[in-house]
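How a chain folds remains the central question behind the approach discussed here. The record that follows shows the chain in one-letter code together with its fold in token form:
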Amino acid sequence: MNDGLDKEGMKLFEAAGIEADCKRRDAKALVAQVGDFDALIVRSATAVTREVIESGVRGRLKIIGRAGVGTDNIDVAAATENGIVVKSAPYGNTNATAELALTLILAVSRKVVPGHDSLRCGVWRKKNFEGYELSGKTLGILGCGRIGQRLSELVVGFNMDVIGYDPVVVSSSKIRYVSKEEVLSSADYVSVNTSGKETVIGRKELFLMKPTAYLINTARGRNVDEKALYGALKAGSLAGAGLDVYEEEPTEEGAEFRCKLRELDNVVMTPHLGASTVEAQQKTSVEMARVVIDYLVYGNFSNAVNVGENIELEERRFYPLFIYHMDKPGMFAKIDKVLADFGVNIRENPSRQIGEGYAIAVYLVHQKIEQDVLDELNKLDGVIRAET
């Protein structure tokens, strides 16, 4: 755990009999020592480079876990090339990030930060800080996944109209789906909750937004073109912005933050606090521990971002083959040989014991099983029944 892990996750590793090391290592030390571990867990601070991964595979490294949603700081391509599974823990910070997006919406609407700063400087001022109520306004959500859906639920009490755009439409009773262009042109607040590294809001998109609108970004810094945003805010063609993520973020606590947007009075900025709640850290650590344990102990690929449940594999058709057999050594070898002889490719074969001395194996294969294959399987010593 190079970036630390909440104690609740640590307890799960201890209960599973897995020794955990939370010592912080710099890049050089990580390259030198990563091969001593079966798993490497990081948050956003550690860069898991190709060098780190290739050093790990020369040792014991089997899995990299990202305690959070994005894997931008992990060279997933290098991990895939080297047979290393990468898993994320995307659910633990859903509510925390959605609540921060709402916090930024409220802060920019009611001029909370400049009002606070004025009082901190000993000046009582009200006239410059007249704000807006959310009631009756339109919230536009770009990216209607877990966080976008949760944000739509949080604003119900504010009597807002919620519209959204996502290439993949997820059923929602709170979001009315429209085109991306309509979200941008109609919304009083546009919240970016997308995944991926591509630019979602650039000069073209900012031009479509109302001059009275506010942009909120709690997704990824590179989803918004900061230079274009600075120009729009400076020119007054956008009312303001609430930002938690940036194109370039310091990797060390206390480091200098360089961003031209900090010059502007109509921007509220937080230092990537989306997942920074006690509850989110606990939930994420538990989720991360479980998915890593599931892989190391049980061979479970859930939450993997580079293997298993990706779109390409899901679009392929699989055929189930059910084999009831004696639970004794050598059975899988005999079954696998028959399938190989007939050119049948095995996707996976989960198996469970049933009764005393027997097991059921469910083979997921890429080819339809013909009768001659079943006949050969049923001839095997120890196979009670093979059927599709």
